[in-house]
Fold:
Amino acid sequence: MTNISGASALSALSKLTSAATGAPAADAAAGGPSFGDVLKQSVQSAIDSQHTSEKTAAASLVGKADMTEVLQAVNNAEIALNTVIAVRDRVVNAYEEIMRTTI
Structure:
């Protein structure tokens, strides 16, 4: 069994999403977004959530945001990060399962 690190899993995921966006999928032909596009949007949403959290925390330091806003922004960022981590873990598990498959 091969052990896979997070960096190599993300690299593999990057290659998969590039391939997925290069070839038309069944959903894409029907007008829906491709898997790569959905994944890209989800990761970008998590990054935006982190940036919002940082901006809100910085605003609270100068007195322009209250603690409730900071806590909500940090909580949203934490939820987004946990979601990304869960998806990454599923991708890694699926990749490991594929690698264990005998041909």
